[in-house]
Amino acid sequence: MQLQQYIKELLYRHECVTVPNFGAFLTHSISLLIQPKTGVFNPPSKEVSFNHLLKSNDGILAHFMAQKENISYEQALRKIEKEVIVWKQKLQTQHLTFAGIGEMRLDSQKKINFSPFGSINFDLNSFGLKSFIRKPIFTPTPNTEEFKSFTIMENENKDDLMFTPEKNKNKRSPIMRYAIIGVIGISLIGSIYYFGTKYIADEKAKATEMAQKKIKSNVQKATFDLGTLSEMNLTLDAKPEVIENNPLAQTYFSVIAGSYRSMENAEKKLAELQAEGFDAAFTEVNPEGLHRVAFGRFTSKREALNLHNYIRFALKEEAWYLEEK
Questions:
Q1: DSSP classification of residue 162
Q2: Please, which residues have CB within 8 angstroms of residue 148's CB and are 6 or more apart in sequence?
Q3: Confidence class of residue 263 from pLDDT cuts 50, 70 and 90?
Q4: Among residues 159, 183, 136, which one has the least CA distance to residue 36?
Q5: Residue 246 DSSP class
Q6: How big is the CA angle at 165 (ends 159 and 166), to the nearest 5 degrees?
Q7: Model confidence, pTM
């Protein structure tokens, strides 16, 4: 009887409890069951079944028995074997009852038939929940005696009533209501579009200003390692020449973005670069009549080279360096 108690306790924790050389007790979950006709509510539960083909020892029952009785695992196995022998002998002549679990008996073919009692719910999530019957809510129908029809009170004496309902003369037509709703909706859409467009324009202007400041800061801070130049030995035959004293002209150093024959295309490119935050400008028209648009035009060669390297190596865009003399 003690072994049967151990099996019952283990069925709360495990879906399969195997008795070596006898069979396995299995549990499977049953969801909430509602019977609409009778109003019976059954909570989620686990139903027990038995499979006589699963006889291999999985160690669960023996370990649990060893812990409960403070004995070794081998001693627990021996006690289980003795109990199983008793069960098999008893099944030959009568049925075998497992308290709270079910009942076993042999059929005409000497196979074990197991009938679960179903009195214990082995689902721990439904602990304490029991089946109950919900009484149906009575809904009166015209055929029932409790249903009573209500009739409108009539004025048998034809007396004047103290209160008489008046028709609402100021009731607005549906068309007028729809027109008012339409005007309000159009006004809301117009105001949303106006303020939304203004907000986007303000944000775009702020973003352009921040981009210009960021590009200037990156150009000023940018440093590029161009490697070291190999040493070259040059021999020059210097010949004195007469240098004319010409007035020095201003020299510009530019980073060219493109050359255009059409002034309209050049102006579009200039506006595009300025929108991206560059101090774009036109350079002198080249000898072929093309209009050059520069990312930047400087009087300092160092600033021009820094911008050129930043565009080529950091932004990965096409650009070339030009000295205007």
A1: S
A2: none
A3: very high
A4: 136
A5: P
A6: 125
A7: 0.39
